[in-house]
Amino acid sequence: MKMIYYLSVALVISCLSLPESIFAQSPPAYALENVTIHKSDGSVIDSGTIIWRDGIIESVGSDIEIPFDAYSVIDGGDSLHVYPGFIDGLGTWGSPEPPERPEQPDDPGNPGYDRAGIQPDRSAGDHLDASGNTFTDVMKTGITSANLGLKGFMLAGQPDLYFLNGEGTPDHLLKESTGYQFALEGAAGGWLSRAYPSTTMGVMAQFRQLMYDATALQDHIQYFADADGTIQPPKRDGVLESLFPLINGDAHLYASVDSPEGFERVMILNNEFGLNVIIISGKSVHYKADELGEMGIPVLASIELPEKPDWMKEDEDSDTNEPGSEEEERYRERQAEAYKAAAENIRTLLDEEVSVGFASAGLDADKLHEHLRALKEEGGLSEDEILQLLTVNTAEILEISETLGQLDIGFNASFAVFNSPFLEEESAVKMVISNGEVHEF
């Protein structure tokens, strides 16, 4: 009996001394084989294989052996094209709509933070509505991750970065509070509802006051802490305190700008307060491309090209173009030059060495590929440049380039699988892998 007891004790002790690796079980691998792999640097791998495990790419290339523990092996049959997952630098997918007809405040000159459109304390994730097909439709464009902001006015809130996962998107947070949204947009309703600020100059004055007030409050909080209670305690203010990272230069300001005048006004604020500005949309900032390049200010650009003048559309559809009067021809020439400059907005920015990524900035998901094709045909960009815009460039601006944007070993397993090269007219997304999870369409 004693012998059995001693043997049992010895067995327990020997098991406890075994290395943990014997009991550990690695997560299963997944594989996608016989596909054409398009990397963000423009290189292409034919009949390639991608293996990922626990959301991380383990192998990518040709002649790769599928591991014995592969849970799922998807054979592309040499007909599918794989791209790094597209990244939306700032989108408002899933954001609630602001009120259309807000009530007129009792004191229009001091309407309160929310009524004035001053909501920097809002977190996008706290208001995210992922019900329905919204995020599934976005994923069908090839977008696998998005910096999600809020619809609003002057200071709409703080975006959060997510891996897209359909209705499960709120459970796939990648990075919380990536910065603050800012727009030169007055309070809802403007003069009709008499709420301040209702003009561009009012927005600039109000923003300045907020920065000064936040700085003063931060100083008072620090003085009070250092004074051991011998001075009057500060009156705490959650909205102003939420701005501390911004006034300290520790956070980005996503400034929505679509005109040279808007850019100038944002730069006045930038120079005054030392902000870390990222331009959002920037449809007409090609006029300021040299300044953007010199100042090192990045742009998360809209890919929505302007509408062509009717006469240009008619000329394209007609075999014979009848000349108009001399005055009309001069007018058309000016229109054509303006359209070309706007269409080549991103091309001009890149030529001035501006860092340019992509932001959906209100674009409908079903229009994405139509505008991408127009960007190649009318905007002077190559397919490789467009792919870089959607992937590695955006990842660098959002400071996540060590995790996303490339199809390489050690990067997050987020990529899109198309039935043909992604800019072809009939191209469609067959599946996306987002943070290692497979979503088939």
Automatic annotation (TrEMBL):
Name of the molecule in the record: Amidohydrolase family protein
Keyword entries, A-Z: Signal
Region listing for Disordered, in residue ranges: 91-129, 308-334
Pfam families the UniProt entry points to: Amidohydro_1 (PF01979)
Biased composition (Acidic residues): 313-328
Signal peptide (from-to): 1-24
Source organism, top-level taxon: Bacteria
SUPFAM superfamilies: Composite domain of metallo-dependent hydrolases (SSF51338)
PANTHER family: ALPHA-D-RIBOSE 1-METHYLPHOSPHONATE 5-TRIPHOSPHATE DIPHOSPHATASE
Annotated Amidohydrolase-related domain residues: 344-438
Lineage: Bacteria, Pseudomonadati, Balneolota, Balneolia, Balneolales
